[in-house]
Specification:
The chain is an alpha+beta fold. The chain contains 5 helices and 8 strands; from the N terminus they run ββαααβββαβαββ. The mean pLDDT is 95. It comes from Mucilaginibacter litoreus.
Length: 167
């Protein structure tokens, strides 16, 4: 779907179940995003089918799989989420810890922002992160997002709220 210098970004499929299992069970996912109770591969497949895939049908966008172009190895997810408590989609991302600090999350975010600007009539994006997630805050700011206070989702703790105008 999207190709960059180093990455291929595409929709998740059932074939990505082992990677989703691994990603959602990383310490950083559980610390900064939350435990999704993915105990076995069938749980990861259910997460793809019930959480990730419906975005594509309902909105035409969603969280996308990020893989290394050269090896085809999946390394993370990056894409748009539509939260009931936000009036516009938000950019979300998560990468395997061994790929942190290599610029690949930044590369994927920029590619998705460019793609979204061209492919969708979205005027503004949000992004949220925890106050403890300094890396995510830095990445969002590097991508042009501006901190805009805090928001507390119905199911969770307060999050820092960022926005980016796409006009």
């Amino acid at each position: 779907m999207i190709e960059t210098t180093n990455l291929i970004i595409k929709q998740f499929t059932a074939d990505d179940t082992p990677f989703v299992f691994e990603l959602l069970n990383t310490e950083t996912w559980k610390q900064f995003i939350g435990d999704r109770n993915i105990q076995i591969l069938d749980d990861a497949l259910g997460y793809i089918e019930k959480v990730l895939a419906p975005y594509y049908d309902k909105y035409g966008y969603g969280p996308w799989l990020v893989s290394l172009k050269e090896k085809g190895e999946p390394i993370g997810l990056c894409g748009l989420f539509k939260r009931d408590y936000l009036d516009q989609p938000d950019l979300g991302f998560a990468f395997m810890p061994q790929y942190a600090g290599k610029g690949l999350a930044y590369e994927s975010c920029l590619a998705i922002l460019e793609y979204v600007t061209k492919a969708y009539n979205i005027k503004k994006l949000y992004a949220t992160t925890t106050a403890a997630n300094i890396r995510s805050q830095g990445l969002l700011e590097r991508c042009g997002f501006v901190r805009n206070g805090e928001i507390t989702p119905p199911e969770g703790e307060p999050l820092l709220l960022y926005h980016l105008s796409l006009q």
